[in-house]
Amino acid sequence: HEQAFKATTSRSRTFNCSRNTEISIEKPPRSILIVNKLRTPPVIQAIDALLEYVHEKYPDVRVFHEDRKDIPHGAEVWKPGTDASPIDLVVTLGGDGTILHASSLFSAGEVPPVLSFSLGTLGFLLPFHIDDYAKALESVFNGKATILNRMRLACTFYDSDLEKKGEGANDDWQVMNEIALHRGASPHLNTIDIFVDGQHLTEAVSDGLIVSTPTGSTAYSLSAGGPIVHPSLSALVLTPICPRSLSFRPLVFPSTSIVTLRIGDRSRAPAGVSMDGRTSQILNPGELVTVQASPFPVPCINRSSIIDSATAAEMQHREGAGPGKEDDWVRDINNLLQYNATFRSKALLRHSRT
Amino acid sequence: HEQAFKATTSRSRTFNCSRNTEISIEKPPRSILIVNKLRTPPVIQAIDALLEYVHEKYPDVRVFHEDRKDIPHGAEVWKPGTDASPIDLVVTLGGDGTILHASSLFSAGEVPPVLSFSLGTLGFLLPFHIDDYAKALESVFNGKATILNRMRLACTFYDSDLEKKGEGANDDWQVMNEIALHRGASPHLNTIDIFVDGQHLTEAVSDGLIVSTPTGSTAYSLSAGGPIVHPSLSALVLTPICPRSLSFRPLVFPSTSIVTLRIGDRSRAPAGVSMDGRTSQILNPGELVTVQASPFPVPCINRSSIIDSATAAEMQHREGAGPGKEDDWVRDINNLLQYNATFRSKALLRHSRT
Amino acid sequence: HEQAFKATTSRSRTFNCSRNTEISIEKPPRSILIVNKLRTPPVIQAIDALLEYVHEKYPDVRVFHEDRKDIPHGAEVWKPGTDASPIDLVVTLGGDGTILHASSLFSAGEVPPVLSFSLGTLGFLLPFHIDDYAKALESVFNGKATILNRMRLACTFYDSDLEKKGEGANDDWQVMNEIALHRGASPHLNTIDIFVDGQHLTEAVSDGLIVSTPTGSTAYSLSAGGPIVHPSLSALVLTPICPRSLSFRPLVFPSTSIVTLRIGDRSRAPAGVSMDGRTSQILNPGELVTVQASPFPVPCINRSSIIDSATAAEMQHREGAGPGKEDDWVRDINNLLQYNATFRSKALLRHSRT
Amino acid sequence: HEQAFKATTSRSRTFNCSRNTEISIEKPPRSILIVNKLRTPPVIQAIDALLEYVHEKYPDVRVFHEDRKDIPHGAEVWKPGTDASPIDLVVTLGGDGTILHASSLFSAGEVPPVLSFSLGTLGFLLPFHIDDYAKALESVFNGKATILNRMRLACTFYDSDLEKKGEGANDDWQVMNEIALHRGASPHLNTIDIFVDGQHLTEAVSDGLIVSTPTGSTAYSLSAGGPIVHPSLSALVLTPICPRSLSFRPLVFPSTSIVTLRIGDRSRAPAGVSMDGRTSQILNPGELVTVQASPFPVPCINRSSIIDSATAAEMQHREGAGPGKEDDWVRDINNLLQYNATFRSKALLRHSRT
Lengths: 354, 354, 354, 354
Ligand SMILES: NC(=O)C1=CN([C@@H]2O[C@H](COP(=O)(O)OP(=O)(O)OC[C@H]3O[C@@H](n4cnc5c(N)ncnc54)[C@H](O)[C@@H]3O)[C@@H](O)[C@H]2O)C=CC1
Ligand SMILES: NC(=O)C1=CN([C@@H]2O[C@H](COP(=O)(O)OP(=O)(O)OC[C@H]3O[C@@H](n4cnc5c(N)ncnc54)[C@H](O)[C@@H]3O)[C@@H](O)[C@H]2O)C=CC1
Ligand SMILES: NC(=O)C1=CN([C@@H]2O[C@H](COP(=O)(O)OP(=O)(O)OC[C@H]3O[C@@H](n4cnc5c(N)ncnc54)[C@H](O)[C@@H]3O)[C@@H](O)[C@H]2O)C=CC1
Ligand SMILES: NC(=O)C1=CN([C@@H]2O[C@H](COP(=O)(O)OP(=O)(O)OC[C@H]3O[C@@H](n4cnc5c(N)ncnc54)[C@H](O)[C@@H]3O)[C@@H](O)[C@H]2O)C=CC1
Hints:
Four copies of one chain form a homotetramer.
Chain A: H1 2-9, E1 23-24, E2 31-36, H2 41-57, E3 62-66, E4 76-78, E5 89-93, H3 96-105, E6 114-118, E7 128-129, H4 133-141, E8 146-150, E9 153-158, E10 173-175, E11 178-182, E12 190-196, E13 199-212, H5 220-223, E14 228-229, E15 235-243, E16 251-254, E17 259-263, E18 271-275, E19 278-283, E20 288-293, E21 298-301, H6 309-319, H7 328-335
Parallel strand pairs in A: 2-3, 2-5, 3-4, 5-6, 6-7
Antiparallel strand pairs in A: 1-8, 8-21, 9-10, 9-20, 11-13, 11-18, 12-13, 12-17, 13-15, 15-16, 17-20, 18-19
The structure holds 1,4-dihydronicotinamide adenine dinucleotide (4 copies).
């Protein structure tokens, strides 16, 4: 039966839309950028061990670190920008926020593959435990790592004369989770006109609006009532925050859509802008932002990259999913979100005596 | 400003995922199938006018009708099946249900382009008013009609021995809106195991589950709390019906996913199956259904097909959307769903005296 | 600080609406009715032990049981109705459904206090573990038991001529959880007109409607999206099931309201009626049901009844809640519903190595 | 049938909880306080007309106005506080916010009956159109006005040493809609511990929390996903704002409950406090607020007060509701919230030709 079940539930795909999952990195990296937000003792220790390991095992590889006071010993300083040293691999140590930060360092163009380690706490974007760094690096250098291209959103801001806000031409922001507009500390609701591909969709009177990627669908958008969207889908999610309407539902658009949010001319409040959790600027009545899929996704190295052949073989029998196909996402929504944690099953919960 | 706004909100797309919208029909149709559910006087009249018009204007075109007692005068009988006469165009007259019915007539393979007329009442899948039939047919025969490929779902049923239920090999059902499993008249909740690509996602204890297309996201799934998904996106929406869990949210999967629903062995109730609103069978404990994107979408002719050049030119200036780009969907969710019908604006609603 | 906190959060009440919680039973019971749905070995054993204990400790007390083939040895037969033997105490053994069943035995008038035991599995209406039966009975016989009067709803059915359906005058149904109208196995939505105190509220097009008590707010109504209402509040909750409207929200009415549900004359489907999970009848177009607070609540004996003086004293210091004030409900929504089970806290969940 | 229907749906109440609706004002007022927020020409005109009318018709009545630069001619200055002139009637002119403001003027004790006029725009708390002022005043002076006592919440703030914040003993705030805690402009979620009657309910990680009255259930709480609660019910509604949990549902408590919200010691953000839409203070980690029903509701004069006997007689036949029983609330949720505005009915919406 097990075999038959496997066959039944994972037959060859009939539709040929390539998912973003099975791309692999071919060339061994020659430069690594380490990204961390905190410098707590466990982080320092982990970075030291990692650096030592890289220097020894892959002596030709250069290791970089963001320009801060406390850059780890043995790393070179790295500054983002047009003449930044090329980076072949980003290694992050910390929580989900550390990856969001790494993404922000590459807002003008392509992002190198990102290998993310947790330091013992779970996160949605954290496939690896720090203790597995050797295994994980090996799979990258051997060309066995597989990646999930996590879509980003490019956001461009315009003032009420429709001039781009900011100076340079390349000032578009790239977000991995979401852009959120919110009344912030203003006591009043704001009024935002929403356009899709230039067509007026509706006028939202609310605390704010979120335009999220599938990756971000489990972040702020989820708290505001949005659906959970698989990160291998290319789509935009529009979720209102406390709308003054009974009939405002989350919307999911194809990633070819351009969403424009324009603060209403008579909006009683401006809107503060947060991008991946960082507040950036204020949009006043008449000002607008356009949001669309960025050409530069974040290539995140998958957990399945380090599943060894034994495990892979076993999985092939057990699950119907070949090596490298295990889906972190199902595990995550169950473990981290406690998705559908049903009312405790009778079998499990014993009534304790008083 | 208008010009600039247009430029801002509909710049050339940066991501190159083709949307399903701009495909056009090239060859003039040589056979037409008329589909209608009712034979009320307005329907009879409309069909008669249409038939007369086709016979006169396109004398070589054959017109067919489903085999029923009351087939319209001048139409030939058509039976679905492997040796059915080839159909180049389906014309439906009636409500949304008529299109769902037309879709069911082509469940084994490709669906010809569908041109749908309402008889004066609005529907989500009804772009044309019957009075516009000449204009609409003309755009089809001139190769100017554009289509939206509405994704369908192929559903295959298995008994608890994992043998396909039903006989033939081609018994897969194709649904345009959704497949819904429901306890129906049973007083008890059912228990359904959900698998995605062979991986166990969760066990749902609920009244039932819906797997919907983006088209169906505005139908039953919406009533059950699901998000609204643009029909040009390829995706599957999983929405629970009255789950006994506080933490069950709608999920959106890429259209490459295979969703398997298996009635739990100890489920207290079986599940009745409805496909596009038609009840079909009962699934008992241990039985299952797999759901995946069908290779045979329904090519629906768009409203924008009959926008004349004057309107198109005007739109180009006004809206930033070129000819044939007007989106029926935005109009529909506003008009039909009263999407975000905000609490009546103070300016509009006068307080009437007692 | 603890003391001050206690004082701060539980100061003497300023509003004088009596809650239903602190009523106590004064006279020792002279007759007990045992209610159980199953006769599995653990239930049989539990009943035998209980019976023996009662006969020995309270020899004058008569013990009754519903008239069934398998009534326990030592119990007298009891039949509901106008000349039923008077019952001073109901003892239930089983799940929540057993209490709903006990409630249904007293649908024509007053309900005796109900003492409910679980057999090891938790339930929302089950304060006591069977092993505590001696302690629990003692508190009842000593006049120390406190009760929560759980409101019920009286439902009266009328045909389309507005004649009462059924014969006798006392045919009102009394429900403890809810009355639910549902399209059941019909493929079509039904249309139900809702009146509140004779005023037309709205026409609901949906799968169905639920009118629930606060007790029932954690049952079906919750699954359909309703709020959680504390059982000591007197209120009616109206929750739609899959409404074809974006703007239908649950409503909470005072218990003085009369809610009337009338199947629309042109409803495409009738509505099956379920009361506390038991299907009873079908309402056809034009037929109606009125729902209002019943004068006969179910007096449920609280868990706090058996908190001994040591515990009570301890609680007084620890929690700010005096003896007999501990609220089962907070415990239940946390334990049973996993209320607000937040995304796993970083501190608690260790990332396991692959 | 109509008669029978009326009898069926509004039979004499079986439960005897007095609703707050049918209280009437007996003594004719001797002093009136006029409250308005704006001094736009229509407001000025309306006040002048009203003042003239009162002076002429009820010459002994004193008219007061809040102490502002622009107090209307013919009115005396009034200052809130312990030695404020006694007020028998408050007249408000403006939107819902004007009534909230009037409520705030009487935060230390009893509130006089409030008669609210709109200036042509609808509001939830606005029963009368300004053109009806004569009729409305007459019903008050004749003792025919009926009132709905709208419950308020008393809020008391404590610092982390559990000392009352602010000086005087009577510093409790009284809110008519809600108290809302929100992270405001902070990028981080806050952590708030919720206690009910001294018992710990849960720890909320969210943008914020709302504790609302039934009156406020159609204000901010509704936007955040809360249920609609009839204002004649005495209850507290707890609604989370964007909680980071899938399983946080709105809760409804009896008005005897005391809800305590305490900012978690390790909360990453403080919480800004808004009361009826006015931001007041910041609560830092460790600080708390207790919320409970106030002994001082706002007695709002009902629309039904000015239904003349003809209308009343007519209503008696038509609706089954006696004079003075018409419920503004049903009208309001339909007109103002567009409650259950179903997908446009086929009969009403004609498909317009292109
Ligand atoms: N009410 C809410 O739920 C709010 C959520 N946020 C989210 O926080 C994000 C910023 O994260 P941090 O810098 O770590 O701030 P943070 O330290 O305040 O953490 C926010 C939480 O969100 C989690 N998170 C981040 N991205 C996620 C994702 N894609 N899926 C699931 N969980 C995710 C983090 O693990 C963390 O538990 C923003 O992008 C926004 O999505 C921000 C404000 C309010
Ligand atoms: N509680 C609910 O909302 C239920 C909804 N349905 C829906 O009804 C559909 C069958 O439709 P009919 O045969 O016309 O039955 P029907 O005559 O019972 O009509 C159902 C309604 O759904 C509308 N509808 C159908 N497809 C739609 C779509 N894709 N988007 C928006 N609205 C749509 C129709 O216009 C009609 O108003 C099913 O596929 C199912 O989606 C079926 C049962 C319950
Ligand atoms: N989709 C859903 O959530 C459905 C729920 N029900 C509920 O089941 C009830 C009948 O219960 P049973 O006879 O035990 O049938 P059942 O054995 O089918 O169990 C229903 C579940 O509801 C729980 N339950 C019952 N009353 C509850 C309450 N007041 N609060 C919280 N949980 C409660 C029971 O413990 C059980 O887990 C009905 O009154 C109805 O409320 C019935 C049908 C569908
Ligand atoms: N996202 C949201 O929905 C927010 C709502 N508010 C609400 O605004 C209220 C303050 O009102 P204003 O001073 O007029 O500010 P405002 O001028 O910003 O208006 C808020 C809107 O709420 C309406 N409103 C007020 N009380 C209401 C009630 N009890 N039921 C239904 N609608 C009601 C008003 O008519 C107005 O349309 C606050 O008490 C809060 O409830 C405040 C902030 C955000």
